[in-house]
Amino acid sequence: xxxxxxxxxxxxxxxxxxxxxxxxxxxxxxxxxxxxxxxxxxxxxxxxxxxxxxxxxxxxxxxxxxxxxxxxxxxxxxxxxxxxxxxxxxxxxxxxxxxxxxxxxxxxxxxxxxxxxxxxxxxxxxxxxxxxxxxxxxxxxxxxxxxxxxxxxxxxxxxxxxxxxxxxxxxxxxxxxxxxxxxxxxxxxxxxxxxxxxxxxxxxxxxxxxxxxxxxxxxxxxxxxxxxxxxxxxxxxxxxxxxxxxxxxxxxxxxxxxxxxxxxxxxxxxxxxxxxxxxxxxxxxxxxxxxxxxxxxxxxxxxxxxxxxxxxxxxxxxxxxxxxxxxxxxxxxxxxxxxxxxxxxxxxxxxxxxxxxxxxxxxxxxxxxxxxxxxxxxxxxxxxxxxxxxxxxxxxxxxxxxxxxxxxxxxxxxxxxxxxxxxxxxxxxxxxxxxxxxxxxxxxxxxxxxxxxxxxxxxxxxxxxxxxxxxxxxxxxxxxxxxxxxxxxxxxxxxxxxxxxxxxxxxxxxxxxxxxxxxxxxxxxxxxxxxxxxxxxxxxxxxxxxxxxxxxxxxxxxxxxxxxxxxxxxxxxxxxxxxxxxxxxxxxxxxxxxxxxxxxxxxxxxxxxxxxxxxxxxxxxxxxxxxxxxxxxxxxxxxxxxxxxxxxxxxxxxxxxxxxxxxxxxxxxxxxxxxxxxxxxxxxxxxxxxxxxxxxxxxxxxxxxxxxxxxxxxxxxxxxxxxxxxxxxxxxxxxxxxxxxxxxxxxxxxxxxxxxxxxxxxxxxxxxx
Length: 769
Hints:
Elements lengths: L2 H13 L9 H4 L9 E10 L19 E3 L5 E6 L4 E6 L7 E7 L9 E8 L2 E7 L9 E7 L5 E6 L4 E6 L5 E6 L24 E6 L9 E6 L9 H5 L12 E4 L4 E6 L4 E6 L4 E7 L2 E7 L11 E7 L5 E3 L4 E5 L11 E5 L4 E5 L3 H8 L15 E9 L2 E8 L4 E6 L7 E7 L4 E7 L4 E6 L11 E9 L7 E3 L17 E3 L2 E8 L8 E6 L5 E8 L12 E6 L5 E5 L8 E5 L5 E6 L2 H5 L6 E8 L5 E7 L10 E8 L4 E8 L11 E8 L2 E7 L10 E7 L16 E5 L1 H5 L9 E6 L4 E6 L13 E6 H5 L3
Helix pairs in contact: 1-4
Protein name: Esterase-like activity of phytase
Pfam family, one: Phytase-like
Keywords: Signal
């Protein structure tokens, strides 16, 4: 496929459905249109564990779920359900958010009280709190807290377990969804585990914000079931799943004072007039049949699957204008259409649907979570709408693929995809701050054991090229985006100065060689070559290194799950295995889980080929801190070994290792990195060592002296995101430029973001052409 065809195909992949006109990766990156169009660029990522109370264990879970902002746009407030508190951030300088501490709900009620949502009205923070003792005894309250003093000035009994809150634009009303959520382990009479109905049923609470004095505020419920507990006719007529148990989830208010509330498990939407509390309309969200998505958890990104007649089961909802509203169709117990929908509130009919395009965006940007393919895929959970500089934007968040898609909603029935914003894990809260040209994402996943921490990320709307994406995929010959991830290796392609190859590792069940075109920015994965065994069948190697041979074909460094499974594998140009070279038995026996991590080669004028490999960590028989570089003489079929001395971060539990090797003139360049990520990341460097011109002499390892070529950590931090751990690919292209890439681990225990770096010319980085 030519690069022109690749970009043309990518446009088709990014939009997929004829009703969604989107941008190529060039425009998604914001750097290929005359006049520098507006785009959102990430300016900061704040890990909320840094905002915890003094003396608290920094590894204990803490999250940022739903967020709100003060009227001046300078103080962000977020809910931390795991920490049973709300947090405050100073975002006066968006590029340097500062923690302002937290307010524990135990000071306002009980230590087990859990905030579910938050909003700001004037001087006050409205904190929605779940105080339920059980699923069958739901309860909750609304706390009104003065922002400046953090003192509670009033509290309202909500009469049930609350979920979300919304404030009307004129500040006359607040509306709260009282979900009274189901117990997923309970079995109702005649049903199955987790089924509806599970009473008591939910409803909506309206808060009349008469003036700005909370003393005059009052609450009034809007029942979504009859006085006798029976289903309302409007809900029955809409054909909801269990109208007796509405399960309201998310609320949004338009400028006419009309409330939209999703009934997620019931696959419906209710429209309520706030002044009167009257139910105007209830309609079903309907079902969707979506083709061209990945539906099997099998380690293969396969966009040929179909989900049939799946209830949308919308979670978040947002009014686009006073007529059209958007829903994020996350799904719950029976559904989830892997996209989002625009509904016409006058008719309850679908005005536009994303079809397979939202999930295909995840694939295009390397953020497809194959582990979730058999369930609800991308799980679009959040949606928000706001106007910036006269343009109405929609934001749709993927809970499982860690990104937010941005759309131009100038025409509500024809959304135009503009760009994708990467986030940390589980983007939950989507907060437009148009008065300051900002957008905030708060994330709910936090696991200190793998250093995946919840955060608040801030994005600024401006002119220029956003740092993300730095690499995307085009589409295959079949017109679908090429699935990719886990780029743990790079190699230049002989004779093609603007082309590289990478290879997938054990994150996927089938190994593929990916061609990367670097002539344009972002770089484009333009083709995928399946790797096969000697019999010509697809094979799954744990390939951690690749070298494109001038003679044709490739060398792979295969790590394997144990020492003896480490090997050099030679492929022909078609990707078929032609040779497997095992490691010497004594070397293999000394390896643990981390083995071969990189491969490169040289060929002398006589045609004698020598292959070099990097071993990631020390052999059990070698001195601590000394790893091996292996030299394999292809003609002689012999191995010899040299030593490389590692650095140390001194961080308990950390380890240092090598993750790539490449030839640079008469030297070998290697990546040396730590196991740390995020703000803890400390060592991501490229060193060079002299390349011996003959086999190593018998005896103790000869340690090769190393020279620092470039510290890559500043470049990784410059993305203003979660600093990636696995800097794993490095090569010098035929165009003389040095490229590096991070391995996103296919989103497992990682944010999933891939950083593809152009580090500069070989002369600049290594001091040579």
